[in-house]
Amino acid sequence: MLSMEKRIITDICIIGAGPVGLFAVFEAGLLRMRCHVIDVLPQVGGQLSEIYPQKPIYDIPGFPVINAQSLVENLMEQIAPFKPTFSLGERVEELVKPDEHTFFVKTSEGTTVEAKAVVIAAGLGCFEPRKPTIKNLAEFEGKGVNYFVKNPELYRGKEVVIAGGGDSALDWTIFLSNIAAKVTLVHRSDAFRGAPDSAEKVFALAADGKIDLVLQATIAALEGFTHLQNLQIDHNDGSISHINADFFIPLFGLTPRLGPIAGWGLNLNSAAIEVNTEDYSTNIPGIYAIGDINTYPGKLKLILCGFHEAALMAQTAYHRVYPDKKLTFKYTTVYGVNEF
Amino acid sequence: MALMNFDERKLKVKDRNGDVMVLDVPADAEYNVMEVLKTFGYKMRATCGGMGLCADCHCEILEGMARLPSPTEQEMETLDEIPDANSKSRLSCQIKPGDYLNGVYLHLMGSDHH
After folding, report:
1. Nearest residue on chain A to B54, judged by CA atoms?
2. Which of A19, A48, A223, A251 could form a disulfide with A68 if both were Cys (CB 3.0 to 4.6 A apart)?
3. What is the DSSP letter of A31?
4. What pLDDT, on a 0 to 100 scale, did the predictor assign at position B69?
5. Residue A71 belongs to what domain range?
6. Has residue A74 been placed in a domain?
């Protein structure tokens, strides 16, 4: 798909829309700094929404227990007065610092965010697809192998093989069964435990001959010249079969990786960014790192620690956004929350 | 004074580089096998912290699978979703330490742990 060039000018560019990134919007907002938040996931909430939305959290001060997704919703309500803007479903690719006071953060979808400070609140990195171990998989990436369904029309009239046993494998099998010439779902076991409703639909489609369901099997090899043409399926009973395929879509969920941030010249220690605990600044002036992505002596990967780090970060970032102004510390109990 | 426990819990572990060690799992280890492995210095990212959701602690049980308590629905659901699971797969965060660990041979899977 063609992406549109998009330019956003803000005070602080926050990378990561997890709880700590969201709370950073609040702390920045109290000091009259506007924020733009980028996340590779299509929704806010980071790990909380992606991995454990329904799990209870017991160590958020003031909440004896709160469901992860509810915490994200509360944070969105809390930051709403400061009108943050978001680029969701976009991966941060490049950081440019043309002068001492400016950053350009560029994303995979052609967005450029111009900011006076950058806050990396990227948790364990950006979520990327888990890839199956097939020796020539990388060779066919973009030539028939896709890890996301970005444009379903791409598959119209084509032969598509989906692999996986989770929600997204089931949901895309159902969806593409109406678009593709043929959809085959290949799954290692003989049951789909995660989503009984979707599984029922998939079994019904298979019974009606609308899709092919290949259970107890894995994709073992890809074949083709300039584009994918065939897949080899290894069945758990030891037999092997081959299937025509224009597209192979492995859908095995997402897992976080540090990604392009690793190449920005930040001091790293075991894939975490080293920071000064005075203000959670990194070795590059104007770039801060808060939450699970940073490391310092005594670091605990707790949401509550990330909240604290966001508050301290904002006090220093203020001087980059407003170099000529003096900052006095204020309480919300006295001055309230003054929306933009 | 706590009673001495002389039961042996020798857990054999092959790491991601293929190196094999035999660990004496303390009788009072209160957490799960993923946490036990961390205390022995194995790199374990554990994105979900031990809820059986992220599969960072995915391992193969090379010996002793039958002795381990059965996986929960949650564990099976997560294993169902990852690409490199097989019939020997377990999530080490979902295995509680117990005498049944004695003689179990576990192989750490996955990569990219720090």
Report:
1. A51
2. A48
3. T
4. 94
5. 6-128+255-335
6. yes
Over residues B22-33, the pLDDT tens digits come to: 999 987 776 899
Mode of pairing for the β-strands spanning A102-107 and A247-250: unpaired
Contact yes or no for B82 and A130 at CB 8 A:
yes
Question: A132 contacts in B (CB within 8 Å)?
Answer: 83-84
Q: What structural domains does chain B harbor?
A: 10-108 (3.10.20.30)
Chain A residues touching residue B83 (CB < 8 angstroms): 130-133, 163-164, 250, 252
**Which DSSP category does A267 fall into?**
-
Q: A211 vs A183, A229, A232, A264, CA distance in Å? A: 5, 19, 18, 46
CB–CB of B81 and A252 under 8 A?
A: yes
- Is position A209 within any domain? yes
Nearest CA in chain A to B86: A188
The ipTM is 0.80
Chain B residues with CB-CB distance to A191 below 8 A: 80
CATH at A185 = 3.50.50.60
Tell whether A123 and A10 lie within a shared domain. Answer: yes
Whether residues A223 and A284 fall in one domain? no
pTM: 0.85
Residue A145 lies in a domain: yes
Per-residue pLDDT tens digits for A78-111: 999 999 999 999 999 999 999 999 999 999 999 9
Q: What is the pLDDT of residues B3-23, one digit of tens each?
A: 545 567 899 999 999 999 999
Burial profile A115-146: b = 16 or more Cβ within 10 angstroms, e = fewer: bbbbbbbbbbbbbebbbbebeebeebeeebbb
- Residues A12, A62 within the same domain: yes
Q: Which of B54, B60, B109 to mutate to test the interface with A (most CBs of A within 10 A)?
A: B54
